[in-house]
Specification:
Blueprint (H helix, E strand, L loop, with lengths): L1 H7 L7 H20 L2 H11 L3 H5 L1 H9 L4 H27 L12 H5 L1 H18 L3 H6 L10 H34 L2 H12 L6 H21 L3 H21 L13
Length: 264
């Protein structure tokens, strides 16, 4: 902590840029919360592909969409698109509009390469924990988010690739945009500011994950700021998330069949 604070230099009073960081963060979180809803997704589907039934009998139209083979994956990909827009695109647009260079926002690989053993160790420690909690019915109810991930390797791989992309966007938002955006004024205290919304986005998940997010968010935040790289967090988050999905599928006996595509 002291080393991070020393690297941050003397604090300056928050100004217009820091206010913009806060407002952009609020806009991004609100976009994800409200634009990614099922109602918004259905409105988009019916705008692109008008359905007379959606006006005369919206409940039936909604039921028919939900039971279609493409709906579960498409709705989740829409959610991920909203996450990328809120976590990544809005912050990048703000940084570009204010003349900031993205290379200053912890996108380098050097810090990750130099400390990759630590991140590998963190993942190694998490694997037995994931194996243990995978026996929990509550865990199996939540993971994987994509309910048809077991249908084929195509479904599983498309979902996991999109899921990891979402974690890159998330890491950029919390461990890059917020940390570097507030570092000049708050120093290492930017980690604590970031920790509040980071913990809160885990509330819809399990209580255990919400508690774990405090520890993970604190450590990943300090490491990202100290080593100026978010890639360790992307690696840990992505690897653990994929492992959780696979563990849940394994426990339910739903590892995809050998055929790569649905119905093959």
């Amino acid at each position: 902590m002291d080393e991070v604070q020393a690297d941050s230099g003397p604090a300056v009073r928050p100004g217009r840029f820091e206010l913009g960081v806060a407002l952009t963060a609020c806009a991004g979180l609100m976009l994800i919360q409200f634009a990614s809803s099922e109602a918004a997704f259905l409105a988009l589907v019916w705008a692109v592909r008008p359905d007379p039934l959606a006006e005369s009998d919206p409940e039936t139209a909604r039921f028919l969409l939900r039971t279609s083979t493409w709906y579960p994956l498409a709705s989740l990909l829409y959610w991920i698109a909203c996450c990328v827009a809120g976590y990544l695109l809005l912050p990048v647009l703000y940084l570009k509009a204010t003349g900031r260079a993205l290379r200053d926002y912890y996108l380098g690989l050097e810090g990750f390469r130099a400390h990759r053993g630590l991140y590998l160790g963190a993942v190694a420690l998490m694997i037995p924990v994931i194996a243990l909690v995978s026996y929990s019915p509550a865990f199996q109810e939540i993971y994987p988010f994509y309910v048809e991930a077991h249908r084929s390797w195509f479904d599983l791989l498309i979902w996991e690739a999109a899921y990891v992309l979402q974690f890159f966007a998330l890491e950029f938002f919390f461990r890059s945009f917020l940390l570097e955006g507030l570092r000049r004024s708050f120093g290492v205290g930017a980690v604590f500011v970031m920790l509040l919304p980071y913990c809160m986005i885990h509330f819809p998940k399990t209580a255990a994950e919400s508690v774990a997010s405090i520890v993970a968010g604190l450590l990943l935040g300090v490491f990202a700021m100290r080593w100026r790289s978010i890639w360790g967090g992307v690696f840990v988050h992505g690897t653990v998330a994929v492992a959780m999905d696979v563990a849940s599928l394994w426990q339910k006996g739903e590892i995809p069949p050998t055929s790569p595509f649905p119905g093959g």
